[in-house]
Amino acid sequence: MCSRKFVCYLTIALLLMGIFLEEVEARRKILRGRKTITRRYYRGTAIPAWAIVLLTGIGMLLLGGGLYALLQKFVVDAADTGEGINSYTPALQLTS
Fold first, then answer.
1. What is the pLDDT of residues 15-61, one digit of tens each?
2. Where is the signal peptide, in residue numbers (predicted)?
3. How many domains does the chain have?
4. 20, 71, 82, 88, 96 from 91: Cα distances, Å
5. pLDDT for 50-95, tens place per residue?
6. 12 is a domain residue
7. 85 domain residue, yes or no
8. Residue 89 lies in a domain
């Protein structure tokens, strides 16, 4: 079941990457006699640039929030091992 989920997520990720890729330029050379004709084909992206920026920003916010929650749970909360026990002791003041 895990491999099926992985393949599904990988397919979705590759599909999104294909949508977000920049414009594709293809060149084809056609030989006719002694002349070489170069044709160029341009294909625009599937969604407009403002939508790419919006989705990227929302994705970054969600990723940052998820990372914050994970670090809060596993790093910050895990550091509170003992309550009331301070690991800091002030330096001893010597008077001369």
1. 887 777 655 555 666 555 666 666 666 667 777 888 888 989 999 99
2. 1-26
3. 2
4. 58, 31, 22, 9, 16
5. 888 898 999 999 999 999 999 998 888 877 665 666 667 777 888 7
6. yes
7. no
8. no
pTM of the predicted structure, to 2 decimals = 0.44
Domain limits at 7? 1-43
Which helix (H) or strand (E) segment holds residue 16: the answer is: helix 2-20
**Token pair 């990720």 in the structure block, residue:** 13
The first and second tokens of residue 64, run together, are: 């940052």
At 84, the amino acid letter reads: G
27 lies in the same domain as 56 = no
Judge whether 49 and 22 are in contact, CB under 8 Å: no
Eight-class DSSP state of 23? -
Q: Which two tokens stand for residue 65?
A: 């929030």
If asked whether residues 38 and 1 sit together in one domain, one would say yes
